[in-house]
Amino acid sequence: MQRAMLISLTPFNLTFSKPTATAAVAHFSLSATPDSNPNHLTLAHSLQFETLEILEWPSVCNRLSALASTSMGFSAAQNAQIPLGKSKSESLKLLDQTAAAISAIAEIGSPPSDFHSVEDVSEIVNAAVSGKLLTVNELCAVRRTLIAAKALFEKLKALASGADSDRYLPLLEVLEDCDFLVKLERTIGLCIDCNLLEILDTASEDLEIIRFEKKRNMEKLDALLKEMSAKIFKAGGIDSPLVTKRRARMCVGVRARYKYLVPGGVVLDASSSGATYFMEPSEAVELNNMEVRLSNAEKAEEIGILSFLTSEVAKSEAEIVYLLDKIVEADLAFARAAYAQWMNGVRPIFSSKDDKGLDKGATEIGMSVDIEGIQHPLLLESSLRSLSDAVASSSRSSLSSKDGNDVKMVYRSLSSGVSDFPVPIDIKIGYGTRVVVISGPNTGGKTASMKTLGLASLMSKAGMYLPAKSRPRLPWFDLVLADIGDQQSLEQSLSTFSGHISRIRNILEVATKESLVLIDEIGSGTDPSEGVALSTSILQYLKDRVNLAVVTTHYADLSLLKEKDHQFENAAMEFSPETLLPTYRVLWGSIGDSNALSIAKSIGFNQQVIERAQDWVERLRPEKQQERKGLLYRSLIEERNRLEAQAKTAATLHSETRDIYREIQDEAEDLDMRKRALMAKETLQVRKEVKIVKSQLEAVLQEFDNRLKTAGADQLNSLIKKSEAAVASIIEAHSPEDGFLVNETSVASYTPRSGEQVYLMGLRDKIATVVDAPGDDGTVLVQYGKIKVRLKNNEIRAIPSSEKNATTSSVPRLKQRGWQSHTAESKDGEVSYSPAIQTSKNTVDLRGMRAEEASYNLDMAIMSRESQSVLFVVHGMGTGVIKERALEILRKHPRVAKFEAESPMNYGCTVAYIK
User: Fold this and answer.
1) I need a surface site. Which of 196, 206, 384, 491 has the fewest CB within 10 A?
2) What average pLDDT does this structure show over 262-266?
3) What is the pLDDT of residue 488?
4) 439: region left, alpha or beta (phi > 0 left; psi from -120 to 50 alpha)
5) pLDDT tens digit sequence for 695-753
6) Are 416 and 369 in contact (CB under 8 A)?
7) Cα dihedral sign for 688, 690, 694, 700?
8) How many CB atoms lie under 10 A from the CB of residue 214?
9) What does pLDDT average to over the chain?
10) What local confidence, expressed as pLDDT, does residue 76 receive?
11) If DSSP states are collapsed to H, E and C, what string results for 715-770?
12) Rounded distance, CA 341 to CA 696, Å?
C-alpha cells in the first residue's frame, strides 16, 4: 500500500543515556565509587530516606507540588521526588535555574502557559514500544505535547534574546539539547485532524481513493433507496418515506402487507410489532455489497496508517522520554521560583574553606554557617495560610461592616511578607567548628531549630530559596543524617535508648567529611553518668569525621567540651525569667539551663514539691555560683535588649530619611521635566512671535513701496514718518517688559543676608530662610522646614518688597503655632509626625471637583496615608463649598489627629496630621 503523503522520520542518533521520568527526580543522591560497598550504600540510602521523613521533607515537597504546572511535575513533587544536587555544582545549577525562573515570572507575570498543554505521554510511548496500536486520541496527545514543548522553548529563547539575556540562560540550557521531533509532529498533523479526532483523506493515496469510491457508491445507493421509498409511499405502503440501515446494510421500510411492492427484496429486520418490514431491494444488493467491501478496505487502511504512526512514535521513544524529563526539570524550576516568591525567600550561598573572609560586608568573617532570621518553612507555611484566611474572613466581614480598618490592617500585614510566627532564628557557626551543643529548656525550640537547619540544607541542595534575611550561607552537605524522635521498636525488641544508639551507630558508619549530622537529646534514656560518658565519646568521634554535627542535650557536662577543644561550640535557647516562658531564640556561644523548676512552676506544679527540688538543687550546686550566673545572664539579656532597641530606632530613622530623600528626588525630577517643557513652549512662542513680526514688517515695507510709486515729492517725508511709526509700534508691541529686565538684573546682582527670607527656585518658589551669608565659594546655606541645604546664588531669588512685609508678618505667627503644637505633643507624650514637606505623594488636589467626588477622594487619600504622616489638602478659594466639606471631613475622620488651616504662606491648602 502506497503512502505518498506520509513523511519518513529518521530517529535522532543519541550517544548518551537518558533516564526515565521517575529516575530523573530521585529524591536523594549518593556518590557511588567503584569500590563502594553495596551494603554500605543500601544503609546510607535507608538512613537518608528516614531523615527526609524525620525532617518532614515530603511536606515541603507537597507544598511545591501545588505550584507545578504539569501533571508530571505535580506527581514528582507530590511523591517527594524532586531532584537534589548530587554535587555542589549540580545544586548551584538548580539555584541558577530557580533564579532564571524568578526573572522570567517577573517579566511575563506567571509561568509560561505552554506547560499546561504538556501531557504525560510516557505510558503512550511505552504502549507503542510494546507493540500496542495507538488510537487517534493518543497520537494527538503526543502531537500536542511536542507542539507545547517547542512553543515553551521558543518563549524561553525570546526571553534570552533580550537586553539582559544572561539571566535566562540556565532555563534555556535545560531544553537546548532536546529534539522536539518536528517531523513526527507534522506527520501526525498531516494524517490526523486532532480537532475532529479523525484520520484525514490525505493520509494516503489509497485511503483517498477508497473514501472517494465509497462516497460515490453511497450517493448511488441513497438515490436508489430514496426513489424506491417514494414509490412505496405513493402506493400507500408506508406512512412516510423511510430509508435506514439494518445489519450494516441500507434498506427501506414497508408495511408487512405491502411487501409485494419490493419485488425480489430481502427482509433484513422487522419492527417490534411486526407491522413494518425493513427490506433490501434486489437492485441495492450489489451496491450494499460494495459499501461493505469499501468500509472494510477503509478500516484496514486506517489501521495501516495508525500502525505506521505508532511505529514512528516507538522509534522516537528515547527522544520523547528525554524531552519529558527536561520539561519536568523546567516545570520544577518555575515551581521553586513561585515557592520562593510566596515565602519571600532569598538565595542561599554555599560556603567553603577557600572563600573564608569573602563577602565581609554581607557576613561575618570565618562563618561556615551564617543564616540570619530564618523561619521554619512548614511553620511559616501555616502562618501565611492563616494570614490568608484572616484576609478572606475580614473581607467577608467588611461587607456587613462600615469600618474597613481591620481589613486594611490584615492586608498590610500580608503584603509586608513578614510574620511574627514562627520566631526567626540566627544560625552562626564558624569554619573551625565541627560540633555544636545546644542546651536549654524543654519546649524551648531546640529541636525545631535543629530541624530548621536540616531543612535549609536540603532546600539549598534542591535549588530552593530560604525564608531568611540578607544572604544566607551554609556548606553543601552530601548527606543529611538525623536522629530525632523516639526510635523505640517493639517488633525489633528495641527500647528508646537502644533505638537511639542503633541509629547513631549506623550514622557513624555512613557519615563522611561532607555530611551533616543532627542528634536530638544525645545520650538520654539511660544513667546520666554513663549517658554523659557515651555522648562525649560519640562527639569526639564525630568531630574528626563529619563536616558539622549539631546535637541537643540537657547534660551540662557536654557544654564544657568547648573549653578543651576549639572545634566544639555551645548554643542555648533563650528563656525569659520574667515570664517563665521560652523566647525560641538561639544564643550562640552561651550555655542554657534546663529551667525545669521554672517550667514546672509555670504550669501549676505542686509548690511543696518544687520547694523540695529547689533545696536539692542548692545542695548539689555551689551556693553563690547559681546567683552569679543568674545575674550575669540577666545583665547580658538587658544589654542585648538595649542594643536591639537602639538598632531598631536607627533603622527607623534611616528608613524615614531615605523616604524623604526619594520624595524630594522625585520632585526634583518632576521640576526638571516641567522646566524642559516650559523652555520648549517658550521657544515655540518666540519663534511664532518672530514670524508674526517679520510678516508685519514685510507688510509695512510692501505698503511703503506701493505708496512710493504713486506719491509725489511733497508726500515723501510724510510717507517715511508713517512707515517709521508703524515699525516702531510693532517693535514696542513685541519688546520684553522692563520689569523682566529689572528682575534679571536684580537676580544677578542680589546678595542675600543672614536671617533674610528668599525664594527657592528649584522648589517652585518655596520660601526659605538664609542661615549663613554667602561664602567665598558663592554658595548660601538656607533652611526650609527641618532641612538645611547649601545652594548657589543663582538658585535663589529675593522676595519683592511688595510681598516681603506680608510674608515676614505671617511667618513668625506660623512658626510660633507650629512650635506650640510640637511642645504640646511632647508634653502629652504623643509620637512626633514626619516633616511637613509638601510633595506630590502627600498632596490631594480637590479643586474642580464636585462635593461628593471631593469627599470620596479625600477619604481615600486619608486611608492610604501611613501612620504619623502629614497630608496636604488643596481645596482652593472659590466659593468655599469644597473647603467647608474638606474641613468637616477632617474634623470628624477617626484617622486625623489634628489639622492646620490655610496660612498666608499656603492659601487654599490645609495640612492634616494622620494618626
Assistant:
1) 491
2) 89
3) 43
4) beta
5) 888 888 888 778 777 777 677 777 777 777 777 777 777 665 544 444 444 555 677 87
6) no
7) positive
8) 17
9) 78
10) 92
11) HHHHHHHHHHHHHHHHHHHCCCCHHHHHHHHHHHHCCCCCCCEEEEHHHCCEEEEE
12) 69
**Confidence category of residue 810, pLDDT binned at 50, 70, 90:** very low
C-alpha cell at position 29 = 543522591
Q: Which three cell numbers stand for residue 646?
A: 537602639
617 vs 113, 595, 610, 614, 887, CA distance in Å?
67, 12, 10, 5, 69
Q: Which of 32, 53, 27 is nearest to 42 (CA)?
A: 32
Euclidean distance between CA atoms 517 and 479, whole angstroms: 8
Q: What are the residues whose beta carbons fall under 8 Å from the beta carbon of 434, sequence distance 6 or more?
A: 542, 543, 544, 546, 547, 548, 549, 567, 568
**Closest Cα to residue 103, out of 419, 329, 347, 328?**
347
pLDDT, tens digit, 9 for 90 and up, residues 864-903: 888 888 888 888 776 678 888 888 888 888 888 888 877 6
pLDDT (mean) for 420-429 = 80
d(CA 821, CA 829): 12
Distance CA 639, CA 642 (A): 5
Q: What is the pLDDT confidence band of residue 578, given thresholds at 50, 70 and 90?
A: low
pTM over 0.90, yes/no = no
Mutual orientation of helices 317-342 and 136-160 as an angle, nearest 10°? Answer: 50
Q: How far is CA 754 from CA 594, 770, 790, 808, in A?
A: 67, 5, 13, 14
For residues 592 and 597, what is the distance between their CA atoms, to the nearest angstrom?
14
Q: What angle do CA 331, 333, 335 make, to 5 degrees?
A: 70
Counted residue by residue, the chain has a size of 915
DSSP strand E in 281-339: where?
Answer: none
The tens digit of pLDDT for each residue in 610-623 reads 777 777 666 555 54
Cell digits for 156?
524561553
Give the end-to-end CA distance of the chain in Å, rounded to a whole number. Answer: 87
Supply φ then ψ for residue 728, to 5 degrees: -65, -40
Indicate whether 808 pLDDT > 50: no
pLDDT greater at residue 887 or residue 362? 887
How far apart, in Å, are the Cα atoms of 889 and each of 16, 166, 329, 651? 75, 54, 58, 34
Rg (CA), the chain: 44
- In this model, does residue 8 exceed pLDDT 60? no
Strand-by-strand arrangement of the 249-255 sheet: 243-246, 249-255, 276-280, 266-270
- Cα distances (angstroms) measured from residue 723 to each of 322, 702, 711: 94, 10, 14
Q: Which residue has the cell 510709486?
A: 709
Q: What pairing do the DSSP bridges indicate for beta strands 266-270 and 276-280?
A: antiparallel
pLDDT surpassing 50 at residue 22 = no
66-87 exposure pattern, b = at least 16 Cβ within 10 A, e = fewer = ebbbbebbbbbbbebbbbbbbe
Do 366 and 431 contact (CB within 8 A), yes or no?
yes
**Per-residue model confidence (pLDDT) at position 27:** 45
Residue 464 zone, left/alpha/beta (φ > 0; ψ -120 to 50; rest): beta
> Comparing C-alpha atoms, which of 510, 522, 394, 372 is closest to residue 447?
522
Residues 6+ apart with CB under 8 A from 232: 238, 241, 252, 253, 254, 258, 261, 262
Amino acid at 25: V
Rounded CA-CA distance 104/334 in Å is 9
